[in-house]
Amino acid sequence: MFALGISDFSVGEGVYPAAQLLRVARGLGYRDLVCWDRGVAGYPKLRDTLEWIHKARELEGLPPDPQWTDFRIHLGCRFSWRGHGYGALPFSDAGYAALNRLLSAQAHDAAPGPDIPGLGAPEPPQNCVLLAEDLSGLDVLLREGFYAALLAHPRRVQEARKALAAGLPVVAPQVLRFRTAEGLEMHRLKRAIAQQSTLIRTEALWDVAEASVPRAEWEVRFPFAEPAVQKATAAVLERIGDWRIHWGGWVLPRPLGQEEADLDALLRERVRAGVAAKFEHPEGEVLARMERELELISQMNFARYFLLVQDIVQALTHKGLPNRICGRGSGAASLVSYALDLSNVDPVDTNLMFERFLTKERKDPPDMDIDFAWDERDAVIQAVFERYGRHRVAMVANHAFFKPKGALRAVAQAHGRPDSELKQLARYVRGWEGGLARASENPAWDVILRQAAALEGHFHQFSVHPGGTIVTPGPMWEHAAFQPAPAKEKVSTTTWDKDGVENYGLVKIDLLGNRSLAVIRDAYAVLGDRVATDPGTHSRKDPDTQALLARGDSIGVFYVESPATRQLQQRVKKGDFETLVIHSSLIRPAAYRWVDRYVKRSRGEEVWEPSDPVFNELLSESYGVLVYQEDVIKVCVALAGWSHYEADLLRKLLGKPDCEKKLPYFEARFRRGCAARGVRQATVDESWDMIRTFQGYSFCKPHSASYAQVSFESAWIKAHHPAVFFASVITNQGGYYPAIAYLGDARRHRLVVRGPDANASAWAFTAEGEQALRVGLMQVQGAIQKEIHELLEERERHGPFDTLDELLGRAKLSVTTAEALCAAGAFDRWAPDGDRTRLMWARLGGVPPGVRPRPTDPFDRADLEMETMDLTLEMHPAALARVRKGGGPDRVADAGYSTNLDAAPRSEAKRGTSGRNHLRFWALVVADKEVATEKGERMQFVTFEDETGLCEAVAFPDAIRRRQRPFRVGEIVSISGKTTLQDGLAVFEVA
Amino acid sequence: MLAMWVPELPFQLACGRDGALRDRPLAFLNPESPRSPSLWFVNRLGRAEGLVPGLPMDQALRMAPGLRVLDPAPQIWWEAQGSLGDFLQHWTPQGQLLRLGEALVELQGTQRIFGPLVDTAERMRRELAVRHGWASHGGLSQSATAAQIAAHVEHCLETVEEGAEATFLAPQPLRRLPDLAPRLRERFHRLGLRAFGDLQPVPLPMLVELTNPKLAPDLRARVRGEDRPKLPLLAERPGHARHGWRLQPPRLPEEVALAARCLDWLWSDPRHPRRLALHWWDVDGEPHGWRATPEDLTAPPLVLARRIQQAFLAGATRRLLVREVELRLAWGLGRERALFEDPRNQKLERLEPTLARLRRRFPDRSVLPGWMGQGA
């Protein structure tokens, strides 16, 4: 007989995460478990967990666990209709679609969302076993002509008796809600969290008597013991047991307008045309690869996916939406993608491995990631919804699970603890996982901590995947339930997350936003015909661009502007495309631990002697270091004899949070595979050690290559047109550094930075010729945006303003806007002496008699600029602090960031001293990165700036302890410490 | 108007208890960071040695080896502030307690009792020193702003003569103007107005444009020393009562046994309440309130106390602990207390003790005063 299991996906009710629910069901003696949540969001997780149980045994080389061999999970769900509680268990595809339709309709009715054509009103689903939770609910269903049964419970025996007496069908599977008192308390806690109430005010939905009992005990109780009930329950199981949900088979829609076409032939035709256009004389290797890819795509019936993505991109281009895209991710490894203009890197030339994207054995569908300019992304997604219809398109949901900090916060709020306490606690747990242990130093938090620890890992809430979008061949409800996206207008999301959608077989397309594409777009628009016809190839081969990258002068350049990447570039001193591809992957957390080894070998300081010739074949490109995700796959395939698909499973696992738990199973299989092929033990150990440490976020090579391509284009603009480049970077915001740091870098590139000007500034930052940069009015905080736009329109219509009075007369600015613009210096052209105070009185009709306002001096101007724009024009904030507060005789440039490290530090030369590496200076913090040491202590990498330059610094735990707080971007700090030379680069150690 | 300022009241209290603490750098421990002890308040001798609030204790002790770090006692400080209020009540009924150790009182009209205002103020300072051992500063002026700023002059009583307020205030920096919103201070700063004297000649319409129509007249009066606010009464008016309950530690509303305590408060006076308002504050300072309806007021105390508790639970919907509860009562149901009592009322009032006994004996029944019974 079967049980109905309520998991943590029943928000505010369920207490069991998937693995625990399975254990409980099995432990109580059940072999059939029906997912009994509100909605079907938790079904894939349950299924995935059960599959992992089998997979783990297989990886260990053990026979299937007899405990779990015949354990089955069935789909079902609870819902409310007309005020009564029901449950539905589909027994056919039509029933499953009807159930999804009901859930989707109810979700769209309950929350504001888009109108879905054809979804209709919520009605109980046909082709499902319907169970009513009470007799009146059963009555309502029967009156409406539905066939249903009563879900009986020993606590409601009278109802069951009545139903039996009336000849109505009664079933009595056990509902697994909780088992112990702690479980019931957790249920109350989750209810309090969901209702945003306090624990003390929250009543449990369930009764103590509803605790789960072993199957044998349940089956001797009335009503189950009643033969009619037992028979009816068995009949339900038999009915639902015959139906298997479609799972795993790929579901791919056809592109619009190609419903009847032979898609393989169409794809072949388009790819050939694309290859002919891309390659002047396609050689044998290109053609062979094209044929190989097309063959495999045809075999996997995957042509429709490529054509669908192309259709979406082309349709958007016709609508004038994105004029620039960047295909990235594993999809960029395909020559077919390249030929269809879905990616921008030649996979043959760059040696990209197609198997990372698609193999014959692959079970989960691969997806393509396409980047659009960040400001076009929402319009792009809406355009897809409109093109394929809102009933066929949905974004993919994200499932957020409770992490230590979130769990603690939720539990503390349920206990009514105030924000101040939460803030205090947030300080305790910041920066490392598992902070709960340290927070327990406060004894008043005992209960809260215990409950928070238990809550960790439970499902919390839905959010939206950044760009994952799926399109189905027919209505979405035939495949999955969907709902209005939380906090996102006119968008629906699936109730399943990325893994659920993939495991079902729905193929997603990632439509993502990228700021650098907007930077390049804006810059090219300004540069016009100064841009080469093929900017990608041109920039890759441009010596100036390569030199710029080689010296790490890449602030503002896409993906290589962080201090760590710039330092890597400086250490390796190479700026070619292939090196950048390696570096943009090497800098990710998974590969970064090998960076020193890589640098030494690439510079020839350490000889790489592969312990086994096989490494030479696999990893020669990256000097024996695992850099890309493919490297893991290559090693597993070559040494352990795994299939690409199997190796890909390991690759996926390495990026997941439960990696540590599952990795030993893969290790066992890897070692067995290697042993079977006679690989030397030392080689096996070395390669597994590299794989084991390749955990965390990592890139595949096509992804790195796509990004490196964008980096090169961006770097080309910086190398040749820095004014346009910096204007575009700051306008599009969101880079690694604050605007003031970009302006500092612009000055180091000998650009003149001009302040905002009511007659010369646009909304955005603009380049004035090749040597100057004008601050845009967008930077002025405190001004009312609408009024600024009106001012710009007025200037556009009737020409520039001759006087400030004329401006105020024509533009009708409020006091607030006039004050902000004046403080930022936008009216300075009317005050040659720089006295902004006098200008500010202009809006009020002039200085009244008897008032003698203090004029503005350069220090006041710098203050005003910092207040209104977070940047200064004449004087660096660090210089300002130095003048005002004194001290700090040295300068940042003395720390040796200067490219000429042999030159005597400026201040030392000035003072006539030398050889002292202890420095004290005032600086602005422009970047900070916090990391934990092996002991779990906090340390920071910080970038300081003053008017003389930048320096990279490290603050060890002692320094942070002395300072009592970490460095934060935007702070102006007085720093002392010493300069050390690390691998040829000067690094400042904060004392 | 006299502004009294007992500087560093918490430190003065500590020194009063332990004479050995005098003339040495002192600081209170920050109660919010038990793991890494740091300073909360620092006295002026401590500040002179470079200590500042927030400094880690070990660092502070290295900088000033003579530093004594004391445990904070907010409850005692709170009570001391109450004592200051009681002390001031002996001298004048009108006044207002401001920040810890600060008060503003109206002395105008007390000349016939205590003599000239300057002498009274001096006597108040002396008496405060004798009775409580607190050193204080004072500022005497017709203008509340001038008095408050004058009180900042240390160890003496600063008097601002009538008509000289504007001159006195003119050189004072604008940041000393109490309660000036940071946004306005910033705007004035940008306009080059740094001192009271800079702002004094600004015409009212311009000030309205710079601030807002409600605030501008008051602001103008304050910067020119022309503000003559009517201060509230320091003590409760006759027939009124205010019962405060500071919950230590703060509790969830369900854990506050309000009904029992309210019953005590309701029984504290033999009369029926005429008005009843309950106020409470969450731990984050959010205020809430509930006012009893006329029907509630005629209910017997036992019922009324329960109703207060219910209203409190119904109103405390936030998921947060409650820090403070206050019950404000005006006694004497059914009639306002006039300045001159009429004989009939006096007669009926004599029955109040009897009514009180009856109410205690029959707490669940409505025992109404005679004039209410007449109307009924």
UniProtKB/TrEMBL annotation, chain A:
Record keywords, A-Z: DNA replication, DNA-directed DNA polymerase, Nucleotidyltransferase, Transferase
Catalytic activity: DNA(n) + a 2'-deoxyribonucleoside 5'-triphosphate = DNA(n+1) + diphosphate
Domain of life, source organism: Bacteria
Keyword Transferase: yes
Keyword Transferase among UniProt keywords: yes
Domain spans labelled DNA polymerase III alpha subunit finger: 517-677
Enzyme Commission no: 2.7.7.7
Record InterPro entries: DNA_pol3_alpha_NTPase_dom, DNA_pol3_finger, DnaE2/DnaE/PolC, DNAPol_HHH
Gene3D superfamilies for this protein: 1.10.150.870
Pfam family, one: DNA_pol3_finger
Domain Bacterial DNA polymerase III alpha subunit NTPase: 267-513
Annotated ranges, domain DNA polymerase helix-hairpin-helix motif: 752-832
Protein name: DNA-directed DNA polymerase
From TrEMBL, chain B:
Top-level taxon of the source organism: Bacteria
InterPro entries, per the entry: DNA/RNA_pol_sf (IPR043502), Rev_trsase/Diguanyl_cyclase (IPR043128), SulA_CellDiv_inhibitor (IPR050356), UmuC (IPR001126)
Coiled-coil residue windows: none
Chain ranges of the UmuC domain: 17-152
Entry keyword Mitochondrion: no
Family annotation (Gene3D superfamilies): 3.30.70.270, 3.40.1170.60
UniProt keyword annotations, A-Z: DNA damage
UniProt keyword ATP-binding present: no
Pfam family, one: IMS
SUPFAM superfamilies referenced in this protein's UniProt entry, alphabetically: DNA/RNA polymerases
Annotated family: Belongs to the DNA polymerase type-Y family.
PANTHER family the UniProt entry points to: BLR3025 PROTEIN (PTHR35369:SF2), BLR3025 PROTEIN-RELATED (PTHR35369)
Name of the protein this chain belongs to: UmuC domain-containing protein
Species annotation: Geothrix limicola
